[in-house]
Write a structure and sequence with these properties.
By secondary structure, the chain is mainly alpha-helical. The protein has a single domain, classed as DhaL domain (Serine Threonine Protein Phosphatase 5, Tetratricopeptide repeat, Alpha Horseshoe), CATH 1.25.40.340. The chain is built from nine helices and no strands.
């Protein structure tokens, strides 16, 4: 456990361990969601990708945080099929690049990293909130995280707000008609289904919240 103002590669490693564990545990659920409106492979692909990324980090765990994030992103791009690999991988890789070699970062810097991830997802996918995609969870989570920081929350409080907002955004995808990605091909038949990408994005913030809480200690 450490200083919340001095987050390092160990923080990133724990975050990715938590994320990989959640994806593995919910692999079948994510695949079921994707079976309704996609290719029925989101959970399988994400599990494979994050397992590969975690194995890479475990083999070289002592690098600076940006290098670790870039390694995760590159591994996801190379090992996850469909749209998820390029989107998640490129987003996480941009987070790493945004650190620009820094050995540590803090809660404010994390906001910069998360914004870099969103910018990359939107650059690649051109999605906005309401299109029934990753962005429906990612964008409100980042906004809530920033509100937390501006209200005086520490990292734990701000990440808790982010996780809650991601969950709300995820649930809000159910009544939407998809206008991006493979789900958009279904038209009105995409209504009534939770978006798998928004769901895995919520896991990303759940893992972040738990990692922040662990870092803060009892």
């Amino acid at each position: 456990m450490g200083d919340l103002n001095q987050l390092d590669g160990g923080f990133v490693l724990r975050w990715m361990r938590e994320m990989a564990g959640d994806i593995h545990d919910e692999r079948d659920f994510l695949t079921q969601l994707d079976a309704a409106i996609g290719d029925a492979d989101h959970g399988i692909n994400m599990d494979r990708g994050f397992a590969a990324a975690l194995a890479k980090l475990e083999a070289e765990p002592d690098g600076p945080p940006g290098d670790l994030l870039e390694a995760v992103g590159t591994t996801l791009v190379l090992s996850v099929g469909g749209a998820a690999g390029p989107l998640y991988g490129s987003a996480i890789r941009q987070m790493g690049r945004a650190l620009d070699g820094a050995k540590t970062f803090d809660a404010e810097a994390l906001l910069v990293l998360l914004r870099a991830a969103l910018d990359e997802v939107q650059r690649l996918g051109a999605a906005q909130v309401g299109d029934k995609t990753i962005v429906d969870a990612l964008s409100p989570a980042i906004e809530a995280y920033e509100r937390g920081l501006r209200s005086g929350d520490d990292l734990v409080g701000a990440t808790s707000r982010a996780h809650a907002a991601a969950e709300e955004g995820m649930r809000a995808t159910v009544p939407l008609q998809a206008s991006k990605g493979r789900a958009s091909y279904l038209g009105a038949r995409s209504v009534g289904h939770q978006d798998p990408g928004a769901t895995s994005t919520t896991m990303f913030f759940a893992a972040l919240e738990r990692t922040a809480a662990w870092e803060a200690g009892p």
